[in-house]
Design goal:
Length: 148
């Protein structure tokens, strides 16, 4: 009887465990500021950006001609998105205890100010800012990017 109970508990943990970690992985940053008009496209849905909103991996952030958005990531990376900008958070992984790091942002157009956080200090090779004609490797700094 004890083996059956232990087996059922183990199966229950296996069933719940992956779902919890997958949900946690989706969340990558928080909107700290928004001005003007900005949207996030998440799958089929388009959402208006508001302060405190969670941003997830694969979200597409867009601003119109009056829009500004400030994002803060858990490693203290900060991204300021200017008017007429479109960018996607391709990858964000910050697991310092396991030494797993990845930060990849893809810009389509617009202006972005990037201020590096802990990932760029601990694993600078893990940070990439992708633009249409190049890839920018960040080694811990403040970068302003404009893509027409």
């Amino acid at each position: 009887m004890r083996r059956v109970i232990v087996s059922l508990l183990c199966l229950g943990l296996l069933w719940v465990g992956p779902r919890t970690s997958a949900a946690e992985e989706e969340f990558v940053s928080i909107v700290k500021s928004v001005e003007g008009r900005a949207t996030i496209t998440r799958g089929e849905a388009t959402l208006a950006v508001v302060n405190g909103m969670e941003v997830r991996r694969a979200d597409i952030v867009r601003t119109d001609r009056s829009g500004y958005v400030g994002l803060v990531f858990s490693d203290d990376t900060r991204i300021s998105i200017g008017p007429n900008t479109e960018l996607t958070i391709d990858t964000y992984l910050f697991e310092p205890l396991e030494k797993n790091f990845s930060f990849i942002v893809r810009m389509v157009r617009g202006t972005v100010s990037y201020l590096s956080g802990q990932i760029a200090k601990l694993a600078p090779e893990s940070v990439q800012l992708l633009v249409p004609a190049a890839t920018i490797g960040v080694r811990g700094t403040h970068v302003l990017i404009k893509v027409d």
